[in-house]
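pls design
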C-alpha cells in the first residue's frame, strides 16, 4: 500500500514596499537599498518590477512612500505607474468566507501623511499631498463616470480608508471628529487605505 505525500501549500507572498529597516513580521521587504530588512532590491520608480510576476503577490503594505513619488510630465505620472504595478503583481482578490468584506489576498495597505496635516509638508523630500480622493483615480468605473478614462492608468481597485487622528482629537465625539476632519488642519496625521484588486 503506497501513501502519497500531502501536496505542498505555497506560503503567501506578502511584500513591504520601501521597507527601509522597518519590515513587518511575515513580510518580505523591498527597497532601493540593501538594508537589513530588504529581501529584494528594487527601485520602485523604475517600471516594470521585473522580480515579481503577474498575479504572484498575496498582500502588499506600503508605509510613507507614496508621498515621495515625484510628478511626471503632467500627464504620464509615476503615481499611476506605481499603482498599475501593484495591480499587476497582486493576485485576484479572495475574501474570508466568514466575512465577505475582508480580503485575505489581492489587496494593498497604503499609509501616507494626510494632506491637511503639517506631516504632509514637513519633510522636504515629500512630493505630493494625499487625500482619500486621490484613490478615486485608481477605480476604473469612477474614471469612466467622470470622463477620465483617457488618463494613462489601467488599474482597478475598490478602496476603504480610515484616519489616524492626532492625540487631542482621538477621544472627541464622532460628530466633532467628522466636522474637524473636514474643516480643520492637523486633525488627521495619517490616512490608511486598503486597495482591493478588482478583476
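designed seq:
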Amino acid at each position: 500500500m503506497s501513501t502519497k505525500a500531502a501536496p505542498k501549500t505555497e506560503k503567501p507572498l506578502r511584500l513591504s514596499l520601501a521597507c527601509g529597516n522597518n519590515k513587518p513580521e511575515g513580510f518580505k521587504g523591498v527597497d532601493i537599498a540593501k538594508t537589513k530588512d530588504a529581501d529584494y532590491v528594487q527601485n520602485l520608480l523604475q517600471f516594470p518590477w521585473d522580480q515579481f510576476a503577474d498575479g504572484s503577490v498575496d498582500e502588499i503594505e506600503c508605509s510613507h512612500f507614496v508621498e515621495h513619488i515625484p510628478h511626471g510630465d503632467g500627464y504620464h505620472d509615476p503615481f499611476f505607474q506605481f499603482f498599475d504595478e501593484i495591480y499587476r503583481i497582486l493576485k485576484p482578490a479572495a475574501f474570508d468566507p466568514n466575512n465577505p468584506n475582508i480580503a485575505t489576498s489581492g489587496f494593498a495597505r497604503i499609509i501616507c501623511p494626510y494632506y491637511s496635516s503639517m506631516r504632509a509638508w514637513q519633510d522636504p523630500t515629500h512630493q505630493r499631498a494625499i487625500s482619500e480622493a486621490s484613490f478615486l483615480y485608481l477605480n476604473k468605473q469612477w474614471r469612466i463616470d467622470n470622463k477620465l478614462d483617457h488618463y494613462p492608468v489601467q488599474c482597478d481597485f475598490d478602496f476603504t480608508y480610515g484616519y489616524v487622528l492626532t492625540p487631542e482629537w482621538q477621544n472627541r465625539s464622532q460628530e466633532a471628529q467628522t466636522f474637524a476632519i473636514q474643516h480643520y488642519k492637523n486633525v488627521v496625521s495619517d490616512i490608511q487605505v486598503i486597495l482591493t484588486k478588482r478583476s
